# Entry
Amino acid sequence: MISNICCIGAGFVGGPTMAVIADRCPSVKVTVVDINSERINAWNNSDLSKLPVYEPGLDQVIERARNRNLFFSIDVKSAIASADMVFISVNTPTKTQGLGAGKASDLRWVEACARQVASFAKGHTIVVEKSTLPVRTAEVIQNILKAAQDASKNKTSSSTFSVLSNPEFLAEGTAVKDLEAPDRVLIGGDNKDAIESLVSIYRNWVPENKILRTNIWSSELAKLTANAFLAQRISSINSIGALCEATGADIREVARAIGTDSRIGSKFLEAGPGFGGSCFKKDILNLVYLSRYFGLPEVADFWEEVVKLNTWHQQRISSIIVKKLFGTLSGKRIAILGFAFKANTNDTRESSAIQIGKDLLDEGANLAIHDPKVDPNQIEKDLGLQQVNKDEFERISNNNYGSWSFFNEASKACSSADAVLILTEWYQYSQINWDEIALEMRKPAWVFDARSIVDSDKVVNAGLNFWRVGDGA
Ligand code: NAD
Ligand code: UDX
# Structure
């Protein structure tokens, strides 16, 4: 019987996942710990609009469970010591230097967690890999824990461990929904009792037929494979979108036609500005690295193309904008609507807006950026360029170049702009009154809809030029 859970890592996965576990298992104490005290303070903020992660419905879950059986703390040591199950939910970014740089996962945070668990755990502890990890990482964790186990054999209170893999499939923006009604829960391991202990947690709200038990390596590899397949669909549809633009076809019609084939299915066929988010690129590159490592270069090349196509597609959008605006953006004002990598999240990691924004700045554009949830300080970090204040921005627009400023209202961002570029599918952008916006834009003016969410007739009737992704009409 599990009564005390510790989760190391209070990020986009650890926070929402543990909140839902605590909400659904009121008799289990759940403590989420992190070395980042600012993040922990934000999780403990009584103002629920200031939680560090924006997810629809998350505030209500937190309100029900926090300080009842859900706790956020920086006291890693005591949370591990009192836990009978420890989830590792720390970041696993791509390595930036050394062996495998640019592709392999950087496991330094996972290794640090394993060492912390080895040092502080008491009695028997089930260690659960929640982070997305290269296949066979459990071996590394097991080795570290075994060394601790051997070292503690002669002591009075020796500690023992079982390691499980339980990858997370939530998508940002729908995290609470995905956690409350998952397509499946995947648990990999070789210790039956440990597996059933974790199953008993999920069984509080997940039907038995949605809980899959596999060996530990299949579980680790299934997570990378799921993300690779999803990302592959986006590169596939975006590649055909480019062909649509060249041939007069329309990607929405093509997607509908192929998506009704039950073998293909209709999801993940929306052409856009390219996939972003913290997972797809990093997990595919990791798969590429592993394939090469295990002597399978053809497999590696196959998956690498998915990432290459995505980068090419982002650059393609930037160059379309340059061409349509007479080959130069120097001194021109472009309103960027949406900076998050998808709607309903404040996350900008790997957002296409970063690459496209940088390309446009390089071309000398002045970017008026709006996003309903992203913090301008984050945009500053992402673009590697300080924003200029609003007054200066209005002054320099049209006679200087390569700057950006944040606007709290989309309509103000569009004022005096030569073009509006929609990069995130926030619902509010589909409701824009183009007649009003058109009055304030500099003519000839363009709307570039990289998410295909606006009514093209309304844009054209307002006297604006219109381009949207994958539309060859
Ligand atoms: P994140 O960067 O938002 O959060 C990770 C947290 O771990 C950070 O707050 C960091 O301070 C903390 N941390 C790192 N080392 C620590 C240590 N030794 N002790 C205590 N805290 C420590 O990352 P995330 O988006 O939550 O992703 C976590 C993992 O889940 C990754 O492996 C990711 O691939 C995977 N994943 C992410 C998503 C997603 O949508 N973001 C979905 C599924 C899986
Ligand atoms: C993804 C996986 O979906 C999830 O299962 C995994 O746990 C983490 O990685 P996430 O990155 O949060 O989730 O969002 P997702 O909805 O998959 O979108 C990823 C990117 O693809 C976004 O930039 C999104 O806009 C884009 N996308 C998605 C498209 O361009 N077209 C689509 O049809 C779907």
